[in-house]
Amino acid sequence: MALGINPDYIMWIDADQVYQEDTIARLAKHIDDGMMVVNGVTPHKENGKPMEYEFRGGDAVATMIDGFQVNRGLVKVDVPGGGGQMMNPRVYSILSPPYYIRTEADPPGMRIGEDVLFFWKLKQAGVESWVDTDLHFGHIVNGIINVTNGGN
Description:
Layout: E1 10-12, E2 17-18, H1 23-32, E3 37-41, E4 53-55, E5 62-64, E6 74-77, E7 85-87, H2 91-94, E8 103-105, E9 110-112, H3 114-124, E10 129-136, E11 138-139
Parallel strand pairs: 3-10
Antiparallel strand pairs: 1-7, 2-11, 3-7, 4-5, 6-10, 8-9
């Protein structure tokens, strides 16, 4: 639907994340400077590690980049962390639909999400994805608090 209004940018956000006040302006500047896809850094919900991934083999299986460092400007990655992502709408004219599908890989039953497969297609088409390592997002986690003995 967004492509139907001829937008300058397409932004993806997640409902379980919080963003810096200047996120849109910063990401739009990167797109204006010629990048096709750019993200900020999203922490993993369980351990806070930056959710930045790479394709290590010849297939669409992505592996988290160990020791990924933040606060070092723009860095090229294969798969940025998802939410808080801005794209130049031309990305969709480079790829053929369907843009977002899920599939399986080896070992049998291993699922590859639609986001990872989308970035695999981008990489195959020669489109680079970037992360602004100075732009940090927060990830909201849910938990259960149980009543303690004594109620105080």
